[in-house]
Amino acid sequence: MAGSTDFDLYRPSEEHEMLRESVRSLAEAKIAPFAAEVDEQGRFPQEALDALVSNDLHAVHVPENYGGAGADALATVIVIEEVARVCASSSLIPAVNKLGSLPVILSGSEELKRKYLAPLAKGDAMFSYCLSEPEAGSDAAGMKTRAVRDGDAWVLNGVKRWITNAGVSEYYTVMAVTDPEKRSKGISAFVVEKGDEGVSFGAPEKKLGIKGSPTREVYFDNVRIPADRMIGEEGTGFATAMKTLDHTRITIAAQALGIAQGALDYAKGYVKERKQFGKAIADFQGVQFMLADMAMKLEAARQLTYAAAARSERVTLGADGKSEGLTFHGAAAKCFASDVAMEITTDAVQLLGGYGYTRDYPVERMMRDAKITQIYEGTNQVQRIVMSRNLP
């Protein structure tokens, strides 16, 4: 049977590829030049935020009827991937804006969506996600942050830990216990604003990687918020949090893909230039085999991630991710892509030899940045538990 050039089943559309090209050129021009300095100084990548906002790429997932670009899940993955290819810290801007706001998109009232998604879409505010606590990491349902009803308000008390972009974001989706007797079914979700009285932040964590993205504790000290800031019904917060992660774990896979691609691209260029024993080290079979393995694993991770993104787009808002297969595929993409990113960045450092171990070259930063993708939004050990419980 003759081949057909218009068989589009296993390739992104032309629009997706055009998006990739435009994000890549923007990232290389406006974000890459600051990546090393952002890492070295541990400062927020303001240049990246400005570039992303001015090109409407900071929160592409926001639906059009709230002023957003209305990008599908694969387009969002491509944006995050291409930004992460040059600077992982900067890729947390579009990734965490989706993580923080998706609970509102999935479960929020129409009023809540209008109030909080429009400023996010405009670039006037960023959105963070507050689930983890000092004593509730992988066991998120064991959280202690409390919300107590008081008239037409809720009063929040507690601490959230490992909050990405805390202090920079204007809005926070906060999970809190409203009925301690019911464990996960007694957890509700709320939107808290940075300016609410009683909200404060801990010192930025000193981290191995993603140093340009602030990670801080968030403290709630008798924070009184109007009752209409609850996301969805009382007691549905944990379910919303888990549905959110089904979709957003794919954005962590995207981040891992980007970091790995950046490391592979750099290593490929380096081995062609570096000469030993009278020829380029790219001519040695041992090096060629390393590069082949890196490229093969990266391509496998990308196919898994893009297929999961397509599934994420097909799962209608509020549908059960487990029954649609999204829970398994999201966990698989995140787990596999992040493990692959760690391998590829480690091999890139190896290929650069002593130079790879210095900060004069970007691969050591990429190796440090890759590590977190195996840990956040559920460790890869937790992903394997999720997958085993949701086998297709």
Number of helical elements? 11
Beta-strand content bin: 5-15%
Indicate the radius of gyration in whole angstroms.
21 Å
**How helical, in percent, are the residues?**
40-55%
Q: Which whole number gives the mean pLDDT?
A: 97
Structural class: alpha+beta
The biggest sheet amounts to:
4 strands, mixed
Span between termini? 32 Å
Number of strands: 10
Strand order of the largest sheet: 1-4-5-8
Report on this model:
The structure is a single chain. This protein is α+β, with helices and mostly antiparallel strands. The protein has eleven helices and ten strands. It has helices spanning 14-41, 46-54, 73-86, 88-107, 110-122, 237-273, 285-314, 321-324, 326-351, 363-372, 380-389; strands at residues 127-130, 146-150, 153-164, 171-177, 187-193, 199-201, 215-226, 230-231, 275-276, 279-280. The strands form three sheets. A four-stranded mixed sheet has the order 1-4-5-8. Helix 1 packs parallel to helix 3 (73-86), helix 4 (88-107) runs antiparallel to helix 6 and helix 7 packs antiparallel against helix 9. The longest helix has 37 residues, at 237-273. It is globular, with a radius of gyration of 21 Å. The mean pLDDT is 97.
